Amino acid sequence: MAHLSVIHSARPADAGDASDAELVRQIAAGDRAALARLYRGYHRRLVRFLARLTRRADIIDEAVNDVFWVIWQQAGRYRGEARVSTWIMGIAYRCALKDLRAHAGEPLADVHNGDDDGAALRTFDDPVALHELSDWLAKGLAHLSREQRVAIELAYGGGHSLEEIAVIMDCPVSTVKARMFHARVKLRNLLPVLAGSSGGSVGNVHE
After folding, report:
1. DSSP string over 32-52
2. What pLDDT is attached to residue 116?
3. Is the model's pLDDT at 118 over the cut of 50?
4. What is the per-residue pLDDT across 137-177, written as a single tens digit (0 to 9) for each?
5. Labelling 31: which of 6, 75, 159, 176 has CA 20 to 30 A away?
6. 179 with 125, same domain?
7. Residues 94-107: tens digit of each pLDDT
8. Nearest C-alpha neighbor of 138 from the set 59, 11, 48, 10
């Protein structure tokens, strides 16, 4: 779908994976500095991804901390069957679901401000168009189910394949395909309405 084609990973699928794998090997050997470097490299990406699961900043922060605790504990178990980013996002997804269950029923705490929502859209030179497009897409994604938002973010924001998304979300590829299909249909029907309500200028970005 054309209006989602602008959302892509800021780095190619293979770029940096070898260095990430080396960091994981160093972490497995007890190198805390390597853990700090991996944290700096993935923090923004994880926050953006987790914001598709919850808007609660406290849960996002808790999940990020849980992710790197798990990485510290389990780095020695990483065998390279999947990209490091896929492995980390899978940990993040499971940690977030666990933290969401732990906080179920609690009153809404601090809300994540969503500053990273447009991080993957920086291919545009016009900052006004970028801000408007980011806001437009964020509103559209808010109407999707949690699973659909995550699948869209992983595919278009993280550049993951369907197979990798299935690993991260621990579900069959057919389930990922179904979530992507229904998300696209919903966005295809919804985004033109949102674009119209913003004056229609966003639609011109894709022409």
Report:
1. HHHHHHHHHHHHHHHHHHHTT
2. 42
3. no
4. 667 777 888 888 888 888 877 778 889 999 999 999 999 99
5. 159
6. yes
7. 998 888 888 876 65
8. 48
Does residue 72 belong to any structural domain of this protein?
Answer: yes
Query: Nearest to residue 150, comparing CAs of 163, 134, 166, 131?
Result: 166
Model confidence pTM above 0.90: no
Question: Is the separation of the CB atoms in 107 and 74 below 8 Å?
Answer: no
SS3 per residue for 177-194: HHHHHHHHHHHHHHHHHH
Q: Are residues 122 and 75 in the same domain?
A: no
Domain with 194, as residue range(s), is 2-7+115-206
Instruction: Give yes or no for a contact between 199 and 141, defined as CB atoms under 8 angstroms apart.
Output: no
Q: What is the CATH number of the domain that holds 49?
A: 1.10.1740.10
The domain that holds 193 is classified in CATH as 1.10.10.10
Q: Which residues pair with 56 in a beta bridge?
A: 111
Angle (CA) 188 193 194, round 5°: 100
Residue found by looking up tokens 């977030």 in the block: 96
Beta bridge partners of 111: 56
Q: For residue 63, is it within any domain?
A: yes
When pLDDT is averaged across residues 66-90 and rounded to a whole number, the result is 92
Residues ≥6 apart with Cβ < 8 Å to 151 = 165, 169, 176, 179, 180, 183
Q: What is the pLDDT of residue 23?
A: 95
Number of domains in the chain: 2
Q: What are phi and psi of 56, to 5 degrees?
A: -80, 115
Query: Which residue, among 145, 187, 200, 192, has the nearest Cα to 7 in the 3D structure?
Result: 187
